[in-house]
Design a protein that fits this description.
The chain is α+β, with helices and mostly antiparallel strands. It has 5 helices and 12 strands. It has one domain (4-228). Helix content is 24%, strand content 28%. Bound molecules: zinc ion.
């Protein structure tokens, strides 16, 4: 029988490897060449995330807050109409190449020593990656407690080192464990990743449980990341 501590360690190792490589993870939305209109945002913001940590003290709190506030992500902007996309491509309206631009990731970051927790509010249109949070906090010797990190809302679980044939068993394992209301996996040959789009119900599962279920299948040795991407608004 596998203890949850072991499972956590496995996850942290996987994240370490991921962070060290510093490989940008392409997001699924929006697709290349489909930049958003500048005027009216067509995506929802990622909802605030709150999670438990260890190692947060009155001493490192200011630095932790500063580092989280300084987190950046890259977007691609049309020089003409200022439409913005998450991936390189061209503006469908102006037919010109989108230009890369670095933008702030979070609107707010509120660490609390008293509650041993951190609450973040992503800026509109930004994609949040667990690995970015984990790496940033680790610089200040703060560890995310994966048993107190709810995989809330609509997220994508990223699994590396698996194949197309592993998609169904992974989906099945998550559904049988009843961790999420919806699970849909896609294998991306270009990156060798499986992306499992999940939607949590009223009680989102902690990351440690998700990791334990994926590890339990024996086919997901590299559960690598979780990301929350803004979803297109229904028109
Ligand atoms: Zn344009």
């Amino acid at each position: 029988m596998k203890s949850s501590n072991l499972a956590c360690t496995g996850l942290l190792l996987a994240l370490c490897v991921t962070s060290a490589g510093a490989r940008p993870i392409p997001t699924q939305q929006p697709t290349p060449g489909q930049a958003r209109d500048a005027g009216a945002p067509k995506t929802e913001s990622v909802p605030p995330l709150a999670f438990g940590v260890s190692g947060l003290t009155a001493d490192n709190l200011p630095k932790v807050k500063e580092s989280l506030a300084a987190l950046e992500s890259q977007v691609f902007v049309c020089p003409g109409c200022k439409a913005e996309g998450a991936l390189a491509g061209s503006c469908s309206a102006c037919k010109v190449a989108l230009e890369p631009r670095t933008v702030k990731l979070l609107k707010t970051a509120e660490p609390s020593v008293e509650n041993a927790s951190i609450r973040i509010t992503p800026d509109a249109g930004r994609t949040v990656r667990y690995s970015d949070l984990e790496r940033t906090l680790r610089q200040h010797l703060v560890q995310i407690d994966s048993s107190k990190f709810p995989v809330a809302g609509t997220a994508q679980l990223v699994v590396r080192g698996a194949t197309d044939a592993d998609v169904s068993p992974l989906e099945e394992a998550l559904l049988q464990a009843k961790l999420f209301d919806e699970v849909e996996g896609v294998y991306e040959p270009a990156t060798g990743e499986i992306r499992l789009a999940v939607r949590a119900g009223k009680t989102p599962p902690p990351l440690s449980k998700v990791e334990a279920v994926l590890e339990g299948t024996g086919i997901a040795p590299r559960f690598a990341d979780v990301l929350w991407a803004p979803r297109p608004l229904k028109s």
